[in-house]
């Protein structure tokens, strides 16, 4: 998708569709009034006859009659001006795509009444809104045809626009890449194929290198957690280490770690059939890491970033790890396995220990870790926990900037007792209560005293019930936040 800035009144721009915004209880924007008068009041009549009052997400769609320079005009409600933020900007863009994408190659948008600080997120929303996963459809054309988006505003400079547009393009193609990885079926996207994708990121950028460990190397290195989870699968595991070094030397060093379970059957503690479906998405954290690294190669921020992914299936083969097993993680801590379905944290134990060894100054992990997090926060919020208040705050701030919903849960010290083991240093599951928190408390054992934030993305990573702004399948949730965060480091 290409982005253009035009200084003209949007009513004079040639395009297949035009989009106007209207805040609640405010009059139509000037450009819409201009079109309306050209149309002899056609638009305002339609507004009057509908119950459109500018509430967020409400639209009036008008097919313009006669030879007019746009075929469709969309009036889109933005809600109350004081409530409008990045979340609304991203969603408004998705709605604009939903209302125009089927029949437009070019869309022009009247941006004259939106603050320029929301331009970037809006463009990300336009590009993300046209995402489609059609690889396995033998026939059928793309539903979304938008190729060009013209933003009409006199208040935005060409310079500002090109910077924001370049950023939005890089980030949204990384989001699409991340979504493809998650949407790929688990027989296609195995741990070794995931590692191939990581290698191709490093081949595509002079700033990124990639190291991949195979089954033997994982075991020899002492990664007892990842090894154990992989024992039940005939697909070999991979440990993926991408590193980004900035063109301008920097001493800052961050690790981002992502859970890479390419399919989670639950292992011997087998999931019921209904819960097993969609478990190809259990590598969404890994997909965020790969997507982010790809974006860094293009955006070249001045911070060193290590992207780390323990990748394996969690299966029930004859050698599968078992409840009661005790395994030793890379940092030497022993783990008593209570439930083989709490595999993500076991695989992550090695990845976090590895990040500590690299001497990074902070660690951010993303994982579709617990159903409990969805029970607590619902499908649309990620749960955030960490050992450093400043780091938690800046992750939450970065999420807010881009309109991804995240909410802090307490890393309640009182719950540590839940995962105390009688035979090992720690057990992989506590009681039923506070499951998202005990999972994070488990991870805490492997980060030493490095500032660390854990983001449980089990809810927002995958959409089963779509809407105007939630498309079916992988969402790419997390990429926009983490890239934004790293750009500010
Ligand atoms: N991958 C799941 C968590 C999950 C559930 C992600 C639903 C996305 C949607 C994880 O490995 C898991 O199975 N967790 C168990 C932990 C339990 C055994 C302590 C869970 O949440 O039920
Ligand atoms: Zn599981
Ligand atoms: Zn899992």
Task: Explain what you see.
The chain is of the alpha/beta class and 489 residues long. The chain has 15 helices and 20 strands. The protein has helices at 30-38, 42-49, 86-100, 119-129, 158-183, 191-203, 215-221, 224-230, 273-276, 284-299, 343-357, 371-377, 389-402, 435-444, 479-488; strands at 2-6, 17-23, 59-63, 72-79, 106-110, 148-152, 208-213, 238-244, 253-258, 260-264, 304-314, 326-328, 334-336, 362-367, 382-386, 406-408, 426-427, 452-456, 462-463, 473-474. The strands form 4 sheets. Strands 7, 8, 9, 10, 11, 14, 15, 16 and 18 form a 9-stranded mixed β-sheet that branches. Strands 1-6-5-2-4-3 form a 6-stranded mixed β-sheet, sandwiched between helices. A hairpin with an 8-residue loop joins strand 3 (59-63) and strand 4. The longest helix has 26 residues, at 158-183. The two termini are 28 Å apart. The mean pLDDT is 96.
What is the topological layout?
Elements: E1 2-6, E2 17-23, H1 30-38, H2 42-49, E3 59-63, E4 72-79, H3 86-100, E5 106-110, H4 119-129, E6 148-152, H5 158-183, H6 191-203, E7 208-213, H7 215-221, H8 224-230, E8 238-244, E9 253-258, E10 260-264, H9 273-276, H10 284-299, E11 304-314, E12 326-328, E13 334-336, H11 343-357, E14 362-367, H12 371-377, E15 382-386, H13 389-402, E16 406-408, E17 426-427, H14 435-444, E18 452-456, E19 462-463, E20 473-474, H15 479-488
Parallel strand pairs: 1-6, 2-4, 2-5, 5-6, 9-11, 9-14, 10-11, 13-17, 14-18, 15-16
Antiparallel strand pairs: 3-4, 7-8, 8-11, 12-13, 15-18, 19-20
Helix pairs in contact: 3-4, 4-5, 5-10, 6-10, 8-11, 10-15, 11-14, 13-15
Bound molecules: ligand BES and zinc ion (ZN) (2 copies).
Ligand BES binds next to helix 11 and helix 12.
